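Good morning C.,

I know you're traveling, so I'll keep this short. The sequence:
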Amino acid sequence: MNNLVDTARNPWDGSWDVVVVGNGLAGSAAALFAAKRGLKVAVVGTGSQLPLSSGLFDLAGMVPGDKAYSTDPWQTVETLVASEPDHPYGKIGREAIGQSFQEFLGLLEAEGLGYQLCESNARVVTSVGTIKASYALPETMAAGATAFEKRDKTLIVGIRGLKGFQANQVAQSAAPAWPGISSVEIAPEGLGRPGDIYPEALARELDLPAGRDRLVQAIRPHLDGHKAVGLPPIFGMERSRETLVHLEDALGVPCFEIPGMPPTAAGVRLREALDRAFSRYGVATFVGGRVTTVSEGEDGFSVTATLRGEARTVSARRMILATGRFMGGGLAGDRHRVTEPLLDLYVTQPASRDLWHRCDLFHSDGHAVNRAGVTADSAMRPLDKEGHPVSQNLFVAGSILAHQDWKREKSGAGISIATAFRAAESCGV
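The tokens, ready to paste straight into the viewer:
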């Protein structure tokens, strides 16, 4: 383990090499990339939305305005950059983007959470029966992409009382694109509590062999020639790989999880793996409070947060801002303009609020406000209105960046991981 911190002392004591503000995907990735390079890292944030995520990592799934997902994510990246040279991907470059994914997935693999990178955008069925494309899949979902590609005869298994998942809805909605799909609802004896069952609780039961055996016994009578079995995201929490192997060996067919409605066991699994990696690399976390002030002095940055009613300050030579967009508080909008509330960084945006949105909600060109944000140079240093770096020791990462529309591009995870990688590299220079 590198750069371990003595957690017995007060974690607020001392000075740090890097303070990361934000604990989502971008902030967590930036913290780990920096710590892996031997830097002493602290993370400050209000909390993480990762438990609400599907666990899928997109690179670039669609060119805005197109009606279908793209097959080649790298060609889509090139198209996005060609149409918008200031796109974050244009500042990183293909080699570094690829390296960022490899390193980040390696960090997760070390914590027992395996992912599969796809040469082309893989198609997976979701819990509402739609088909979604993704670049990196949790290994527990990979067989679903293969089954869909082959249009294998596949059984979708629902569990009576499980919240947020209806197997018949999945099968009926996906049937036009996947003719070989069907569904069944089971009630495994001794698995789950009577009444409502939540995916995370059921997943923890499947960390144990006895829970898996009960599930297998309930599924086996319904196999009837099916070549694959899809289930809600319940393949364990800390032993998802063991659970997957156990189910496939016992049933004799590939098994896969279907991305679920938030909060998901897959999202919680991801958050817990990142937290284990934080511990491995000595990343200190001050999460749950609200960052109130940030100041820069000769020795670096001081970040003050209110945590459990107390104001505490973390000092660091460098800072990475990964606070997200409007929902995460990284950007704010009033009647006149979009602002970055923590440091009052310059925000690229439409000239007037009248230009934020279009009359047509689903206009093929999207809404200009979605491309507003902080502009950065190739080192991920935020720029002022004249295009000069605000500070040599301040960096930004993630969806707060301008010149991208991650929801329409299906590029959110890729932008977070790649820009976090570059920001962490720059901190180590």
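Safe travels,
E.
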